[in-house]
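Supplementary Methods. Inverse-folding protocol.

Structures were first reduced to a discrete structure-token string of length 162. This string, shown here, constituted the complete conditioning input.
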């Protein structure tokens, strides 16, 4: 499939950069978190609380299958944990890792956004999973873009490489 798949940690700009990129390239924009929420009829935060993380990861696997069979010509923003459950994104499209430092994330995420992201409730824990995931994102991406830069610069960089 000829999609552009954005991966990276929570707050790395996958959705905002993805939306702008889709507009620029006249492609559809798809967000896996939003797809899962609409399919399940529940917010992710509530899904984690009611059914647990394992259930959510299963939803991510199903979402990936569905996208692989049905979606092309789209920019796909993935949930930050999706690369931990998906072996290989290459069947879906070109995979770009938006790489940011943990400090940049802390500056970017406002209080209400922490609230939306259950795994960010504890900053120490978030830092730990950030360190565990970095090599996973690197391994599962075709391209890495430094996403510590300003939004316009990140967009320009991703757009020129996508
Ligand atoms: C998660 C990231 C979130 C969302 C869920 C779990 C993670 O998506 O899928 O809260 O495990 O990193 P964003 O990366 O879009 O915030």
């Amino acid at each position: 499939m000829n999609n552009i798949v954005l991966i990276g940690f929570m707050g790395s700009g996958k959705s905002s950069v993805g939306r702008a990129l889709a507009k620029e390239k006249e492609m559809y924009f798809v967000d896996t978190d939003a797809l899962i929420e609409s399919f399940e009829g529940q917010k992710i935060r509530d899904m984690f609380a009611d059914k647990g993380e394992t259930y959510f990861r299963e939803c991510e696997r199903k979402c990936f299958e569905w996208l692989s069979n049905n979606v092309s010509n789209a920019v796909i923003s993935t949930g930050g944990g999706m690369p931990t459950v998906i072996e290989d994104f290459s069947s879906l499209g070109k995979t770009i890792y938006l790489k940011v430092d943990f400090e940049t994330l802390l500056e970017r995420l406002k209080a209400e956004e922490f609230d939306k992201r259950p795994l960010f409730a504890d900053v120490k824990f978030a830092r730990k999973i950030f360190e565990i995931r970095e090599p996973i994102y690197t391994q599962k991406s075709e391209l890495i873009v430094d996403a510590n830069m300003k939004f316009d610069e990140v967009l320009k960089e991703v757009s020129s490489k996508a």
